[in-house]
Write a structure and sequence with these properties.
The chain is an alpha+beta fold. It folds into two domains: 3-162, Ribosomal Protein S5, domain 2 (2-Layer Sandwich); 166-303, GHMP kinase, C-terminal domain (Alpha-Beta Plaits, 2-Layer Sandwich), CATH 3.30.70.890. It is 43% helix and 23% strand. Strands 1, 2, 3, 4, 5, 6 and 7 form a seven-stranded mixed beta sheet that branches. Helix 2 packs across helix 4 (142-148), helix 5 (183-196) crosses helix 6 and helix 8 (246-257) runs antiparallel to helix 9 (281-293). The model has no long low-confidence stretch (mean pLDDT 95). Bound molecules: (3R)-3-hydroxy-3-methyl-5-(phosphonooxy)pentanoic acid (PMV). (3R)-3-hydroxy-3-methyl-5-(phosphonooxy)pentanoic acid (PMV) binds next to helix 5. (3R)-3-hydroxy-3-methyl-5-(phosphonooxy)pentanoic acid (PMV) is lined by residues 13, 17-18, 20-21, 96, 181, 183, 187, 267-268, 272.
Length: 310
């Protein structure tokens, strides 16, 4: 083939962030309104064309080391000639939406497509986790699995990922605060609280895990209203763990005031994104508009249970 193409979607954490660090369950959700496409063609030397950088891959900044390593590995394994990689992405970086994993998924798929070779899910995740190790040090693999797939994933430390279908008819709104998420700092702050005051912190974390398991049932049983309540309850606990902030709280209040069934932060907190659930598209649109008016940098709406591609 003269060229190959691959894509991947963004992801959000629906429930269970932070608690998952303590062994509780969390649910990651593929988020298809944000996505990446990659194209690979043969080129005299390895070249990258992306929103961040255009030029020889060898000159790409350190932040793109994950892509350099991935391409080096793929070229080595296929004894393939140099390539041009063209990436276009609508996933904001550093918002907990899995942008680095999604780029690696799209590139790996494009490379295999170019080589006319089918790629198994397992092989795909192997390459992506290889790149993710460079981006994140010690990745759980959840971003790789969620950006490569089309079903929610329940994950828990030490257990295999479990996917399950979305039987829920509802709309998910994601809003970007415009501020980088602070996952590293918030995870550390929660650990300090946990050490200093186990008696109040531990039940909050345990309850977040229970809410996650109930959320899975709500998604399987098409209980949108109930899922909204569970999201609100999770946000209360996340706020009690002090990983929310004024900006997130404001956007969550705006979503609720405009008819959301539930709203919460997603991912590390203290910036990053918030999510809201709506029963119908009209309400989802109204919420998204209100969030934009209140300063959200970007908003997206996904109809749940309806997927465009796997
Ligand atoms: O912001 P994200 O999508 O990287 O999610 C962070 C999730 C935490 O539970 C807060 C941390 C973790 O490593 O699981």
């Amino acid at each position: 083939k003269s060229s190959g193409e691959g894509n991947a979607n963004g992801k959000i954490i629906l429930m269970g962030e932070h608690a998952v660090v303590y062994g509780e369950a969390a649910i990651a959700f593929p988020f298809q309104p944000t996505h990446v496409t990659a194209e690979i063609t043969e080129h005299p030397y390895d070249q990258l064309r992306s929103g961040y950088f255009v030029g020889p891959l060898i000159k790409a900044p350190k932040s793109l080391e994950n892509i350099k390593t991935l391409i080096r590995q793929l070229r080595h394994d296929f004894t393939a000639p140099p390539v041009q990689i063209t990436i276009s992405s609508t996933i904001p970086a550093e918002r907990g939406m899995g942008s680095s994993a999604a780029v690696a998924v799209a590139i790996t798929r494009a490379f295999f497509d170019w080589q006319n070779s089918p790629v198994s899910h397992e092989t795909l995740l192997k390459y992506v986790n290889y790149a993710e190790k460079i981006s994140h040090g010690n990745p759980s693999g959840i971003d790789a699995a969620a950006t490569a797939g089309s079903e929610p994933i329940l994950f828990q430390k030490g257990a295999a990922f479990e996917t399950f279908p979305i039987n829920l008819s509802a709309f998910l709104i994601v809003a970007d605060t415009g501020v980088k998420g602070k996952t590293r700092q918030t995870v550390k702050a929660v650990a300090q609280r946990f050490e200093q005051d186990k008696k109040t912190t531990s039940p909050l974390i345990k309850e977040l895990g229970d809410l996650t398991l109930k959320a899975k049932q709500a998604i399987l049983n098409n209980q949108a209203r109930y899922l909204g309540e569970l999201m609100n309850a999770a946000q209360k606990n996340l706020a009690a763990l002090q990983v929310s902030d004024q900006t997130l709280d404001n956007l969550i209040a705006v979503a609720t005031k405009n008819g959301a069934l539930g709203a919460k932060l997603t991912g590390g907190g203290k910036g990053g994104c918030m999510i809201a659930l709506a029963a119908d598209y009209t309400t989802a649109k109204k919420i998204a508009t209100a969030l934009t008016n209140q300063g959200a940098k970007a908003t997206w709406i996904q109809e749940l249970g309806v997927y465009q591609y796997a």
